[in-house]
């Protein structure tokens, strides 16, 4: 299997301002070449907010932007957004290919301490995305605390987490990522 070159982009997000955040990522993505996957943060258009889905950019607008960036960089563009869907608000991890194919995973484990479960609908399906010879399992933030959800049944090569994880709990982030890797013999 060939290597996979991944770029992670992060920034202080402009609270609840999708267009401003997309403009910032436009600037960050300029000149990026030779990557296979480019990862944006959890809720990259709004910041982690309970009311984000109600005033979010439309999914089509976000997907069109991600498709254009995937084509520009010839890479899979991945990140989560708060969206209003027919079945309710979701924290949706979008993975968009340069050819326009869109994959998505709706966050399964909602962060109850912030009442996320009162504002968003939990997903119920694990998704495996095949990209350039790799099988990728997309996961979002609090999913990290549930090892069974990321258990590798020999169905993926890479678990890809996006998160809006607070700095005071960065030791938890590192320890949990390490634990998931050890559990899955990665």
UniProtKB/TrEMBL annotation:
<dbReference type="InterPro" id="IPR052737">
    <property type="entry name" value="Omega-amidase_YafV"/>
</dbReference>
<keyword id="KW-0378">Hydrolase</keyword>
<comment type="similarity">
    <text>Belongs to the carbon-nitrogen hydrolase superfamily. NIT1/NIT2 family.</text>
</comment>
<dbReference type="InterPro" id="IPR001110">
    <property type="entry name" value="UPF0012_CS"/>
</dbReference>
<dbReference type="Pfam" id="PF00795">
    <property type="entry name" value="CN_hydrolase"/>
</dbReference>
<dbReference type="GO" id="GO:0106008">
    <property type="term" value="F:2-oxoglutaramate amidase activity"/>
</dbReference>
<dbReference type="GO" id="GO:0050152">
    <property type="term" value="F:omega-amidase activity"/>
</dbReference>
<dbReference type="InterPro" id="IPR036526">
    <property type="entry name" value="C-N_Hydrolase_sf"/>
</dbReference>
<dbReference type="InterPro" id="IPR003010">
    <property type="entry name" value="C-N_Hydrolase"/>
</dbReference>
<feature type="domain" description="CN hydrolase">
    <location>
        <begin position="4"/>
        <end position="186"/>
    </location>
</feature>
<protein>
    <recommendedName>
        <fullName>Omega-amidase YafV</fullName>
        <ecNumber>3.5.1.3</ecNumber>
    </recommendedName>
</protein>
């Amino acid at each position: 299997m060939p290597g996979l070159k991944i770029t992670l982009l992060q920034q202080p997000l402009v609270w609840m301002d999708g267009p401003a955040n997309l403009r910032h990522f436009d600037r960050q993505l300029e000149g990026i070449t030779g990557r296979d996957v480019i990862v944006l943060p959890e809720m990259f258009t709004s910041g982690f907010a309970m009311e984000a889905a109600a005033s979010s950019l439309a999914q089509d607008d976000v997907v069109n932007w991600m498709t254009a960036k995937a084509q520009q960089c010839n890479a899979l563009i991945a990140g989560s957004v708060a969206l209003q869907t027919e079945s309710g608000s979701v924290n949706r991890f979008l993975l968009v290919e340069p050819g326009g194919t869109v994959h998505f995973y709706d966050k399964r484990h909602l962060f109850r301490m912030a009442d996320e479960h009162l504002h968003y609908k939990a997903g119920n399906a694990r998704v495996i995305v095949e990209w350039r010879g790799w099988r990728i399992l997309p996961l979002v933030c609090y999913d990290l605390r549930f090892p069974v959800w990321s258990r590798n049944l020999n169905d993926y090569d890479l678990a890809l987490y996006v998160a809006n994880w607070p700095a005071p709990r960065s030791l938890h982030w590192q320890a949990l990522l390490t634990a998931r890797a050890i559990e899955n013999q990665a």
